[in-house]
Amino acid sequence: MHRVLLRRLEGGHVEARDRTDDGAPAGVARLGPGELAGYVAERERAGVRWVWDDTTRWYPALLASGVRVERCTDLRLGHAVLRRSPFLDRALLTGPDTPGWDALAPAEPGDAALFPLTDPADALDPGAEEDRQRAAVAASPQRGRLALLLAAESSGALAAAEMTATGLPWRADVHERLLTELLGPRPAPGLRPRELERLAGEVRAELAAPDLNPDSPAEVLRALQAAGLAVADTRSWTLERIDHPAVPPLLEYKRLARLLSANGWAWLDTWARDGRFRPTFLPGGVVTGRWASSGGGALSVPTLVRPAAVADEGRRLVVADVAQLEPRVLAGMSGDTAMAEAARAADLYEGMVAGGAVATRAEAKLGILGAMYGGTRGESGRMLPRLARRYPRAISLVEEAARAGERGEVVSTLLGRGSPPPTGAWAQRPLDLGEAPEETGPRADRDRDRRAWGRFTRNFVVQGTGAEWALCWLADLRNRLWRLGEGPLEQRPHLVFFLHDEVVVDTPEELAGAVVEEVHRSAGVAGRLLFGTFGVDFPLDVAVVRSWADAG
DNA sequence: GCAATACGCGCC
DNA sequence: AAAGGGCGCGTATTGC
User: Where are the transmembrane segments (predicted)?
Assistant: First the structure.
């Protein structure tokens, strides 16, 4: 299959340079302004891999022209992975414009001009960068894993752009009805909705603080303390333990005020235009490899407003999520057969109980989450020795990652994404071995920072490998969905939302059953891509629904 | 006056 | 002995 390298030229022209599989030159085309979409659509028929500096700089405009591409190489994302990978000889990746690639940021939706003249990307040579990346990967002892990671990352970039382009169907009328029921009618600008005003009045009366602004944590804290309550902050879980008549209306106020500010009428005006919610997804936006997002708070769409995500007439949403992704990934990457055995159950925590490791599901969950996050206080800490006996390989993997982080070393995901090197002052000093710990002072601060970094690297290996599993799942599913349908992307079954371990597919009603099958098949493919023949199950909860809220 | 930071809370 | 990972976003508050 040919690789076609696209490069922006002056005046809106584009150069398309063909290479054969083994890298030999195979022709070059110069395209005038406006000719790109037609050219790409034509070349897609035979199948090519597009090589470009950055998907966010090319693909949105192609999608807007109705052109979908099958595969690409995203050099920006590839560079970001490879420059940090411990599996790689960094010298092979270094070239004259490496600092430019290091600094390259994704284009933002506002930069809608297809070829901004001042784009720093235009100073970079994509052909040279592709050569360096391929040479560096080919020389790596882990070239297979790295190649998989780069392919998945590029595929994810395509999926991300497609999800923004098609959008998640969003019924403003349903959302508005929900707001009115909970908050009262939409207030004039600057005024509180009726229900918030009522609750604020109750809180003021109960605290004998007639001028209290319940939106000010500092004021609320002072008022609570003046009422004789021993609280140090105003967080909900702190207040929940306080027995005082001001607390219930205050908690309700906070809940509804949160809804208003995060997903109220202003959110609707800004983000639910034309019946679609279109956040920007940022593949690789988190150091662990998870996606970040911007616009509309896509990473935290509250369950409270999910009833407004409703498929169009004649269509359905297929909502699928993985049960306990990260513990399953930990079982796979550590090769822990006992934990993989527990993962054979649809509920991994019940599987742990059945395997005799712990007595209850709650203990299993606490213990595993503590092992992955580094929480060892209280009950999760008491679970750890038992888990370590029953699941020695899994537990030692995360413990080793924590110790490596505390030593200032870099850790890696299964496919080779490296953790960032530590920057804190503690990292410049060796471990204070054999010295008595201190309660306070600079060394106590360093120890605390060191342990915090260990918790980060402990979690990095699991969260990052979980992100790799999810990315493979997403990439394989994307291709399967395309083959299920006909016509333009938005008419076929297509991804509309992705959140760490959950996908939402928008599909014609009659294809929903087929989509469910493909979602399961993709999960199987992802498991085999990462863990080969070491059997770890990744069971899915899948629902075919009209509204997102009806899933799970 | 605007920009940066802190707080709090939603999601996984 | 103590030890809870990753985000985005809106409001209030602080800093310049």
Answer: none
